[in-house]
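Open question from group meeting: does this chain pack into something compact, or does most of it stay loose? Before anyone orders reagents, we agreed to write out a predicted structure and look at it together. Recording both the input and the output here so the notebook holds the full record.
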Amino acid sequence: MAVLTIIFTLTVLWLLSNAYALFRNRQTAAKSGLPLLTCIMNPSNILYLIFNAPMRPYMEKVLPAAIFDRILPTIYGWEFFDRYALHEKFGWTFILATPGPNIVWTADPDVASQILTRRKDFNSLHMSGVIMGVFGPNVISVSNTTYR
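Structure tokens returned:
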């Protein structure tokens, strides 16, 4: 019985910490003035990373469009399937607020150029540097100071 209490307590603490992180990230993203999507799932969660792409067709069939549109940007490779459909709905630049990191998505070349020139304001995730460095050093993987 004590083990169930510990598991239940840890689960509740984890849910509360995720809810607080989502609330805080949503407030931060709302200050930007960009269109805001909120997703309750953390795209950095290892279980979600493993199962999100294979579950995409099932989620698309089962979930209502309003909910699926908010989950879609967390599914890796959504840009290839949907092209500009999501940008046409929510704007050419929008912010995805999650319990993990806030993510800026843009299809506007001018905004992308500004983001790439302001490297200290828009930090990449450490995992981006690891993935980009698989085939050798490059501009993104060499600069480890921007990922921490």
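Observations to bring back to the group:
The mean pLDDT is 82.
The helical segments are 2-30, 46-62, 65-71, 78-82, 85-90, 109-117, 126-132, 139-142.
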